[in-house]
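Subject: design request, 335 residues
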């Protein structure tokens, strides 16, 4: 399917501390390339840029096809190479979703229960908080986690509850989730099972109910709900290409207090990726991890890329790739 659609996938797994690129090796096999990013969470793409939310930083990368083609270890193999270009030192904000808007990079600041902008002026700049949140404090009051964009601005968010005290969402984590309209501050859907990954598409607003394994379509004006797809697993991470939705599945941690309230039927599914045909709601593709990867947070489609590469700041190799507006160079490592 990846070969036929001419694309690769990027997924983040905070449990393994990796961003993994999955590409079609040929029509019958795939290849994966993992890179270390501490507690990798939200991924954002804009043209040739990528942003990654990590434990206490947001790292900006840019694709250089020229550096990719001449990558010293494997020349002529890669058609893209995402190299670190800047790092914002945010501190431990527990950033979940991350997206570019018209006026900068927006993040769901879960620790401080707000949407914020990430830039070089402050650790973060709050731009919106739910009306029921009375104070911007590092207390994860409602577990704000997901963000859907519209016209370059945050439009809808998901949260696990509507409390205004530290971690008030925990006692009813599987039943008190909400979807909110950022513009009006109104709750458009409530009593949801751990909503994540809201995305606004031409057909409407789509949300994953992680604790029920449900892909839900919501009509914002009326709050009407339509189940599009059901799977016995913890769904989180959603992106689209054409008629296909790529959905992440996480394996439930048996020792997790947060996940302990989830029905046992949803705890057996391995981590991986599901491909759903949106017009029919049918599962048409699946990748499952048997080892190493247990929890997936985000998925992004990399259209037109058959063999992308990515480098992290955890090693010195990324410093050898030099790009200017008119030329690129690979520096010779010192011996």
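Subject: RE: design request

Done. Sequence follows.
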């Amino acid at each position: 399917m990846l070969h036929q659609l001419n694309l690769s996938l990027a997924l983040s797994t905070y449990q393994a501390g990796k961003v993994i690129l999955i590409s079609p090796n040929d029509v019958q096999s795939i290849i994966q390339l993992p890179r270390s990013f501490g507690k990798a969470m939200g991924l954002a793409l804009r043209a040739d840029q990528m942003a990654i939310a990590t434990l206490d930083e947001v790292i900006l990368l840019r694709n250089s096809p020229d550096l990719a083609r001449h990558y010293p270890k494997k020349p002529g193999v890669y058609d893209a190479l995402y190299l670190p270009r800047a790092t914002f030192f945010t501190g431990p904000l527990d950033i979940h979703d991350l997206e570019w808007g018209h006026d900068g990079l927006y993040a769901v600041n879960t620790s401080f229960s707000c949407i914020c902008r990430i830039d070089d002026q402050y650790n973060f700049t709050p731009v919106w908080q739910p009306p029921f949140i009375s104070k911007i404090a590092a207390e994860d009051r409602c577990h704000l986690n997901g963000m859907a964009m519209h016209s370059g601005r945050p439009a809808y968010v998901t949260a696990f509850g509507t409390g205004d005290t530290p971690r008030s969402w925990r006692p009813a984590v599987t039943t008190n989730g909400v979807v909110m309209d950022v513009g009006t501050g109104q709750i458009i859907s409530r009593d949801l099972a751990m909503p994540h990954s809201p995305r606004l598409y031409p057909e409407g607003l789509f949300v994953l109910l992680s604790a029920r394994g449900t892909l839900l379509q919501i009509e914002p004006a009326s709050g009407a709900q339509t189940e599009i797809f059901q799977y016995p697993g913890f769904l989180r991470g959603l992106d689209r290409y054409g008629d296909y939705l790529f959905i992440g599945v996480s394996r439930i941690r048996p020792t997790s207090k947060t996940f302990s309230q989830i029905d046992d039927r949803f705890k057996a599914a391995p981590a991986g990726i599901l491909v759903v045909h949106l017009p029919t709601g049918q599962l048409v593709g699946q990748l499952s991890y048997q080892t190493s990867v247990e929890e997936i947070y985000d998925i992004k489609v990399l259209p037109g890329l058959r063999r992308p590469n990515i480098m992290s700041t955890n090693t010195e190799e990324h410093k050898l790739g030099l790009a200017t507006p008119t030329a690129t160079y690979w520096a010779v490592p010192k011996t």
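The radius of gyration is 20 Å.
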